[in-house]
Amino acid sequence: MILDCTIRDGSYATGNRWDKEALHMIVEQLSAQSIQYIEIGNGTGLGTYRKNSSAMSDEDYFASTLPYKGNSKIGAFFIPTVGTREDLKNFREKGGDFIRIGANATEIETTFEYIRYAKELGFFVCCNVMKTYAITKFQLVEIALMARDNGADCIYIVDSAGGMLPEQIKQYVEAIQAFSDIKVGFHGHNNLLMANANSLAALQAGAYFADATLLGIGRGAGNAQLESLVAVCKKARMDMGQCNALQIADLAQQVLGFMNLKGSTKREINVGLQNFHDSYAPILERVAMKYAINPEILMEEVCKINIIDPSEELFEFAASTIKEGRKVTFIPNYSHHQF
């Protein structure tokens, strides 16, 4: 399952300020895409506005997101040195569903009293072990067991520096699962451009959550990119429900396009989804324009037949078929399936 933290981690890139209409749109449309868990608030969590006068208040975040959550669950981040018990209580009373309580791996005991209190309030509680790479997988198992005993529902592996690799992630997840039935999550950063690969590795190893953001927006090098991670998971034959990578990419461009952040565009995502070689993009665009059809649909239909060397004749055939409202069928003469 993918947990979206665009608003929370993305606040680092927006200077802890968001357009309230953008917040409304992000939550409403992610909910429509069946993203079940959405994290809101400032980067360092509840109470940040008291330490940073330029940051949005928790109340502004609540008002701009909670009424629009639909069937999704809304959560926030909490650091013991930033937030207070009253912050937790207030968020729960306003309609918060889950809370992620985090501390450095070497200071994780500071989270336990807040985990217990959050469970009393009725939250689904995650314990985020920040800078997980600073400890061994066996030390992480010990932390997971302590967190579970204090009421945590989920333990999070956090690649705060974005330097971990898929095999490491796999080993951490499997070690926890060997000793506990607590749910496991993974929060990756993208410093080595491995956030999506690491997230996939976590999910394939049995993690319950992997975090991602629209356009990969986030602190530093950013996070796993939601729209491309959805595409990757679909290609890995994971059940993503109603999530549509291209529609999520549209949302990303709509609310974050002005930021011009590094990340896969809608076209690049579709190229990966369909195994389309972009050297054929000029033909794709030319034929799609000629027939006034969506080039992304044309790409999909062409690639059902030939992903190696599609001819212009095939593009023309597929485009005319789509224009007529008919289904493009398998045509051996155009196919790469030559056995």
Question: Mind explaining what this structure looks like?
Answer:
With 339 residues, this protein is of the alpha/beta class. The chain folds into 2 domains: 2-261, Alpha-Beta Barrel (TIM Barrel), CATH 3.20.20; 275-334. It contains 15 helices and 8 strands. Helix 6 (112-121) links the parallel strand 4 (98-104) and strand 5 (124-130). The longest helix is centred in the middle third of the chain and has 14 residues, at 166-179. The mean pLDDT is 92.
CATH class of the largest domain: Alpha Beta
Report the average pLDDT across residues: 92
The CATH topology of the largest domain is TIM Barrel
- Low-confidence runs of at least 5 consecutive residues: none
Oligomerization: single chain
DSSP strand (E) fraction?
5-15%
Query: What order do the helices and strands follow?
Result: EHHEHHEHEHEHEHEHEHHHHHH
Summarize the structure.
This protein is α/β, with parallel strands linked by helices and 339 residues long. It is 45% helix and 13% strand.
Features:
alpha/beta, 339 residues, 15 helices, 8 strands, TIM Barrel
Helices and strands in order:
Elements: E1 2-4, H1 6-10, H2 20-32, E2 37-40, H3 48-51, H4 58-65, E3 73-78, H5 85-94, E4 98-104, H6 112-121, E5 124-130, H7 137-149, E6 154-159, H8 166-179, E7 183-188, H9 195-205, E8 209-212, H10 226-235, H11 245-256, H12 266-274, H13 281-291, H14 295-303, H15 312-323
Parallel strand pairs: 1-2, 1-8, 2-3, 3-4, 4-5, 5-6, 6-7, 7-8
Helix pairs in contact: 2-4, 5-6, 7-8, 8-9, 10-11, 10-12, 11-12, 12-14, 13-15, 14-15
